[in-house]
Specification:
The structure holds 2 protein chains of 2 kinds. By secondary structure, chain A is an alpha/beta fold. Chain A is about 35% helix and about 15% strand. In chain A, helix 4 runs parallel beside helix 5 and helix 4 packs across helix 10. Chain B has a single domain, classed as Ubiquitin-like (UB roll), CATH 3.10.20. The model of chain B has no long low-confidence stretch (mean pLDDT about 95). The chains are: A alpha/beta, B mainly beta.
């Protein structure tokens, strides 16, 4: 579809880039990205994707906005406290860019709903805060052959990696199984600097955009870590050999999705 | 001998074992850390018997669960 005059102006800084152009902008307008978790990572990711003109953005989250979310979840405002996060996120995106259709799913992902949920989308962003969900998203994306961006943030640190079907390791290749409940602290227990969601969530949006326009190198086969205190990024090259992986390997032993016990936020 | 840990080159004693390096590097919750040496994962059960060699490139990959 040809861009309207308004779109040419709105996306002019994209269109002028040789890697994007009108063609890339059209790809963005046609693209569908699902964000699971409208929180610290999902909020900036959703906002940059909306501003970029990603035509369809799905947001899945069962929670309501809490006052303690606002230190980092910039898609929500003070007046949104108590509102469903998906509703608050949709309102913000609608205000930002009328080109974007927002689909909201007020639910937590589970083995029951996730495959159907992701099926319609071109790229998935994991913005969840717990290991059961992160493994579930990984396994579902491997099974449905969907690319996705994994990320985690805690204290002054963050990390992310990208999985594209057939290209390099999945999250489970690296981390095998969720850690036992309370073995590894989460944000609520350990704290997180608010801008960390902005840094890492924006990088997730960047991966989605590059995947959609088909330019540059993705974080496939790499885990990028960021330490805000030392101000260092470090790209860890991951092993290429994935054939033994129980989910993305040659002879998968995990062929059904697993609902691990929720362990997000109750370490004392 | 010199090795690279987390992208940083450093000198360690010859024949240092992986468990010794894990202690030296003050790796948090080591039982839940994935280790790669020269871009190959070290299986959990192999960690105890792994000896680091001159020039090895070691990475510790940590679980990071937050996001909301």
């Amino acid at each position: 579809m040809p861009l309207t005059d308004e779109q040419i102006e709105r996306y002019s800084r994209h269109i002028i880039l040789k890697e994007v152009g009108a063609k890339g902008q059209n790809k963005l307008l046609k693209a569908k990205v699902l964000i699971i978790g409208a929180g610290g990572l999902g909020a900036p990711a959703a906002m940059y994707l909306a501003a970029a003109g990603v035509g369809t953005i799905g947001i899945a989250d069962a929670d309501e906005v809490d006052l303690s979310n606002l230190q980092r979840q910039i898609i929500h405002g003070t007046a949104d406290v108590g509102k469903a996060k998906v509703k608050s996120a949709r309102e913000t995106i609608n205000q930002m860019n009328p080109d974007v259709t927002v689909n909201t799913y007020r639910t937590f992902v589970s083995s029951e709903n996730i495959r159907e949920l992701i099926r319609d989308y071109d790229f998935i962003i994991d913005g969840t805060d717990n290991f059961p969900a992160k493994f579930l998203i990984n396994d579902a994306c491997v099974m449905e052959k969907k690319p996705f961006s994994h990320a985690g943030i805690i204290r002054f640190k963050g990390q992310l990696m990208t999985y594209v079907p057939g290209e390099g390791p999945c999250y489970r290749c690296v981390f095998k199984n969720p850690p036992p409940k309370d073995a590894v602290p989460t944000c609520k227990q350990a704290g997180v600097i608010g801008a960390m969601g902005g840094v890492i969530g924006s990088l997730q949006a960047m991966e989605a955009i590059k995947y959609i326009i088909g330019k540059g190198q993705l974080l496939t086969g790499s885990l990028l870590t960021y330490d805000a205190l030392t101000m260092e990024f470090h790209k860890i090259k991951l092993p290429k050999d994935t054939h033994n992986c129980p989910v993305c390997g040659e002879h998968p032993t995990i062929t059904e999705l697993i609902d691990y016990e929720q362990a997000e936020c109750d370490m004392k | 001998m010199f090795i690279t840990v987390g992208g940083e080159r450093k000198e360690v004693k010859d024949g240092i074992t992986l468990p010794e390096l894990i202690e030296l590097e003050k790796v948090e919750t080591p039982e839940y850390v994935t280790v790669s040496i020269n871009e190959e994962f070290i299986a959990k059960e192999q960690i105890a018997a792994t000896v680091i060699k001159d020039g090895d490139n070691i990475e510790f990959l940590y679980f990071m669960g937050g996001g909301q």
